[in-house]
Design goal:
Blueprint lengths: L5 E6 L1 H18 L6 E6 L3 H8 L7 E10 L8 E6 L9 E9 L3 H11 L5 E9 L12 E5 L5 E2 L15 E4 L1 H6 L15 E3 L3
Parallel strand pairs: 2-3, 2-5, 5-6, 6-7
Antiparallel strand pairs: 1-9, 3-4, 4-10, 8-9
The structure holds inosinic acid and magnesium ion.
The site of magnesium ion (MG) has 3 residues, from loops.
Length: 201
Amino acid sequence: MWREAIQQVLISEAALQRRIRDLGSAITADYRGRQPVFVVVLNGALIFLADLIRAVDLRLTIDCVALSSYGAGSVSSGMVHLRKDLDESITGKDVLIIEDIIDTGLTLHRLVHHLSARRPADLRICVLLDRPARRRVDLPITYTGFELPDTFVVGYGLDYRGEYRNLPFIGALRSEVLQASPPRETPAHPDLAGERCLDIP
Ligand code: IMP
Ligand code: MG
């Protein structure tokens, strides 16, 4: 059974849903009278976005970006490729970035630079999970679901080699599964040539 790769449930489905309802209420109160654009970072934050927007009582729109970090090391190299850009203009709009997890912070740091150049009226970040132990760049996170220990997690949108996104909870993988192939060895994608790279310092 593929679920046997999960060693432990760290955040249950019920706890996720409760916390997301609270985040939705906070966002609803903070953005009252405004029409935010929720920018979801594909693919990991998809499930979070789907539940979060149904907990938000506002007139809102969504747009998507897809990013991938790559490098030879065991942590993000700091180079982030934009694999898919926004469809609509965000100039003058209130933008809320929706991300699954902030780890080193490099991915969100690059995305914030990229989106800031479009001159939104306001730009904030909402993450489901925060793993502060590995942070390399500090950036303000307005909404955080849960803080995590220094453990690689899967489920509720987060993957290991593309799998486990469909688990309804956040869990830790068995060490044997991770030891077989370390999760943060992110090889350069063969199809990256010609894609735009956000190499803003
Ligand atoms: P950062 O650039 O180091 O902050 O990494 C953020 C990105 O790495 C997230 O968007 C995730 O895609 C991925 N990531 C970081 N930690 C985990 C994890 O524990 N499980 C799955 N993906 C992760
Ligand atoms: Mg991600």
